[in-house]
Amino acid sequence: MVVLSQPAVLDPLSIIKTCKPTSVFNGIPEIDLKDPEAKTLIVKACEEFGFFKLVNHGVPLNFMTRLEDRALNFFSLSQFEKDKAGPPDPFGYGSKRIGPNGDVGWIEYLLLNTNPHINSHKTLAIFRENPEVFRSAVEDYILAVKSVACEVLELIADGLGIKPRNALSRLLKDEKSDSCFRLNHYPPCPELQALSGRNLIGFGEHTDPQIISVLRSNTTSGLQICLRDGSWVSVPSDHSSFFINIGDSLQVMTNGRLRSVKHRVLTDTKSSRISMIYFGAPPLNEKIAPLPSLMEQREGESLYKEFTWSEYKNSAYKSRLADYRLGLFEKT
Ligand code: GA4
Asked: What is the pLDDT of residue 9?
């Protein structure tokens, strides 16, 4: 832990954990969405890492940078203006505090429900500065990225022999889907590097509770994933690709075959990192359990007790970021 600067010493939020930079990993699977072998390669990557880089996905770079520019505009407003869209409930603008249970990080963010009717008036204050431009950049981006997520889920279904092939993608396409979207800004922290040679933790280690997450960032790196052997490695950034990770719900639906990967973000010492993540989730009342068509192919019992997405989400919001949330739902 480190104390940053003088007046901040009095502020408990300035006590944010740090971490030594780790080695860059060049072994992240890179998958071309149009490759005829994509279904096999995606399943392999999700079994081994729970994570892969997706290229040739069809979303143009200027589509991504359009939203990135809007996000940068928002994050450069005065603190007073940004706070009008917070505190997060969980939706809205947040700074340094992550979730309701005391987690902190060197980050500011906007968390939105992908269903615009669910975002409160307060949250919609984010669009106030330039309502149409920001709102349409967010909505268009979500549509594009959701379609990529659905394509990937259909390839996963093909690769695993899940029938029907839309058994997973239909959950994201459902109008009651509880998916959400996050814009993160990790400001640089040069003082710390000079002081200690360490980086501040922007977003502490965790797994995503949902089905699948689709991340895009600018060229500033910082994302790290935890490999099977427990070691942490840095993921080289690539502003035109998506990084896909498996969430806890898909780990359960595949009875543990696909891995929900632990990941975290370190802040850069020199440049801002902007990331945008779509978290594909089922409707609240959806039962999360190993898929019948998968269980028929393989012998063995379900590793998990049955639960609904709403139960899992409620339990996640009672937990700390680094907690192993699936533990409560494992059969003993
Ligand atoms: C992690 C994945 C998503 O960013 C998120 C996060 C959520 C939040 O920031 O409000 C949580 C976190 C995430 C998991 C445990 C709980 C809930 C913060 C937290 C401590 C939006 C989500 O769905 O779960």
From this structure: 44
